[in-house]
Amino acid sequence: MKLSLLSAALLGAAGATAQLKQITDYGPAIKSAARMFVYEPAGLPERPAVLVGVHYCTGTAQKYYNGSPYKGLADQKKFVVVYPESPNEGGCWDVSSRATLKRDGGSDSNAIANMVRHAVDKYQADPKRVFLIGESSGGMMASILAAAYPELFNAVINYSGVAAGCFFTDSVAGWNGTCSGGRIDQSAAWWAQWVYDAYPGFNGTRPRMQIWHGSVDATIAPANYNYSVAQWTTVYGYPSTPILEKADTPERGYTTQVFGDRFTGVYAQGVGHGVPVHGSEDMVFFGL
Ligand SMILES: *[C@@H]1O[C@H](CO)[C@@H](O)[C@H](O)[C@H]1NC(C)=O
Ligand SMILES: *[C@@H]1O[C@H](CO)[C@@H](O)[C@H](O)[C@H]1NC(C)=O
Ligand SMILES: *[C@@H]1O[C@H](CO)[C@@H](O)[C@H](O)[C@H]1NC(C)=O
Ligand SMILES: *[C@@H]1O[C@H](CO)[C@@H](O)[C@H](O)[C@H]1NC(C)=O
């Protein structure tokens, strides 16, 4: 009896981990050895949507799969989730090297772009419904991907990240304390230039974007919210101050700031690093 309960528990655990699958041959070999995992819910429709979920430092694909609501939402709404996994010690993404800040530069951003292309092809997904979400280090990666691969994503959400280029140190494992401390004094045009330089000459439609940041974030100082606002309002050609501000939205203490139809910020009063994931709001923003 005890034994069969134990083996049932073991089987259950094995069954749960088997749901997240690794895909080893997702693209051409490049310098980054980032790993690709996917979750494919039962009953996928034709031309499904794809959500790419990029984990935080110390994260893995499995931890993000277990700890975020996207698997459950994928079961309900029937989309594929791609969980990239960092190849770097400490589980942070390369968000600081020159190579990762450029399109097709061979580092982690390039690897994730290759995963997205592979997933769209493998699942015959709808290329107009590919969405990206990232948290912390993954949020920083989300802004880089939006800058360097704008054509791959319909919409991007980043939780507690930084503006593209803010973490630049010209090394893979760099931690840029000037950025995280919120001590970069630069113009909006300077911030926007990082986006233009990530993919020079791009003139298509950029993804819709939403950023979230906590007002008492001690890891990535709140000034980073302003850097991102400066960066993306310039790129989109929006005014630098909100055209619409909604207090206590989506919850008490959070202010939603609309800068234009493609760029929204959510500033969370009294919230620290790692703004809690708001899975159902994310689905509304993506239209899933
Ligand atoms: C940190 O990032 C800023 C902005 O890109 C850059 O000017 C600065 O040199 C970086 N700091 C280090 C230590 O690389
Ligand atoms: C946009 O870029 C493409 C490819 O570089 C180019 O062929 C096209 O003329 C550009 N369109 C505009 C409006 O600049
Ligand atoms: C961000 O910008 C707002 C509006 O301009 C300003 O009130 C606020 O002090 C800035 N925050 C930081 C941390 O610089
Ligand atoms: C990520 O968040 C930062 C601010 O925290 C912002 O500058 C950047 O534009 C965001 N990127 C994306 C793709 O949402």
UniProtKB/TrEMBL annotation:
UniProt keyword annotations, A-Z: Carbohydrate metabolism, Glycoprotein, Hydrolase, Polysaccharide degradation, Secreted, Serine esterase, Signal
Origin superkingdom: Eukaryota
Alphabetical list of Pfam families matching this protein: Esterase_PHB (PF10503)
Subcellular location: Secreted
Molecular function GO terms recorded: carboxylic ester hydrolase activity
Family affiliation: Belongs to the carbohydrate esterase 1 (CE1) family.
PANTHER family linked to this entry: FERULOYL ESTERASE B, UNNAMED PRODUCT-RELATED
Designated name of the protein: Carboxylic ester hydrolase
Higher taxonomy: Eukaryota, Fungi, Dikarya, Ascomycota, Pezizomycotina
